[in-house]
Design a protein that fits this description.
27% helix
């Protein structure tokens, strides 16, 4: 069982935008559709994952009701669908379509994070249903290295990237860099992405993997990534945006992103919360505690009560990784919660 934290509800605001006691306003909601995945990335998936029973996963109507609540009562404006691998859920396109109907009440953006293995056949349907953009994980473009990192094949990922772009979906590539595994893939990935004119962001290895692999010395920092990139490209740091990534202009033309979660955490400006596939609310990616929303939802709680539970939990959101760096011990792993 996941650890359950029940906050003092009367300490939280009763209306208005969703915010925590540190003054951070929440505009973005991450929603995991499933804990299942068709890859086994070493920084995410346990060696021997145990999939959740399907009856524990939020049904489509439950998921849409909660997202509607976050939009209408709590000021959420952007939703990102995650996993596991969200496209393993058979009704993923229908979920996007149902969320698209929420634009009339304030939802502004629908995004998805995917490994793209199953993307090519459904890219057009996703765009037609209302998907705005995709973050696609790719830690190597070398087939052998990609397989070593994920136990999968890179060819369908590249096909999925091409299909998404052809369908008119915005695409960003995410690459986790780990010392001893793929740090020599930095320049090949930059060359390939720049040649394709597709956005690429490197992510520092976070202490959230399902195998206990993380140690501080395995983190390739922003500075180290820039040192590699600078061997071949001219680098100009761009002004800071609201995104977690820092952006750099390479040779005056290509924009590269780096998310320095470990070396320079952005916790003080975090504007997102996360809903697991089983309906547990996590106010921080590094949280050890959650607030179960599925049980009250299935027990008949009305929207006012659910909103109260959300506000109470988010009000007590931790300062984040910046305040307590190091490995995070908790029952939930990344493939369950989503990135």
């Amino acid at each position: 069982m996941n650890q359950l934290y029940v906050p003092a509800l009367d300490a939280a605001p009763r209306e208005g935008a969703l915010r925590d006691a540190r003054g951070r306003h929440k505009r973005k909601l991450r929603v995991s559709l499933t804990d299942r995945c068709n890859l086994q990335c070493l920084y995410c998936m346990p060696e021997h994952p145990k999939w959740l029973p399907r009856e524990q996963i939020l049904r489509r109507d439950e998921l849409v009701r909660l997202v509607r609540l976050f939009v209408t009562e709590l000021g959420i404006r952007e939703v990102r669908l995650t996993g596991g691998e969200p496209l393993l859920r058979r009704d993923a396109v229908e979920i996007v379509g149902a969320l698209n109907d929420l634009r009339s009440i304030g939802l502004e953006r629908i995004a998805m994070t995917s490994n793209a293995v199953r993307l090519a056949p459904v890219a057009g349907a996703l765009r037609q249903a209302g998907l705005d953009d995709l973050n696609i994980s790719i830690d190597s473009i070398t087939p052998e290295r990609f397989h070593a990192m994920t136990r999968g094949q890179v060819a369908p990922v590249l096909e999925g990237i091409a299909a998404a772009r052809a369908a008119g979906i915005g695409v960003k590539l995410n690459s986790v860099v780990i010392r001893g595994y793929n740090e020599d893939e930095v320049l090949p990935l930059v060359r390939w992405a720049a040649g394709q004119d597709v956005s690429l962001r490197f992510i520092e290895f976070m202490p959230l993997d399902g195998r206990g692999l993380w140690t501080r010395d395995k983190v390739i920092t922003e500075a180290e990534i820039l040192e590699q990139v600078g061997r071949e490209f001219g680098i100009e740091r761009l002004p800071r945006t609201a995104e977690p990534a820092e952006y750099f202009r390479l040779d005056g033309r290509y924009r590269l992103g780096i998310i320095p979660t470990i070396s320079r955490p952005f916790c003080s400006t975090c504007d997102r919360v996360r809903l697991s596939a089983t309906g547990e609310l996590y106010s921080c990616l590094f949280s050890e505690a959650c607030r179960d929303l599925k049980a009250p939802l299935r027990s008949g709680a009305d929207d006012a009560r659910l909103a109260q539970l959300v506000r109470g939990h988010v009000w007590h959101k931790e300062a984040g990784y910046a305040a307590r760096p190091g490995y995070v011990e908790r029952p939930i792993t990344m493939h369950h919660l989503g990135g």
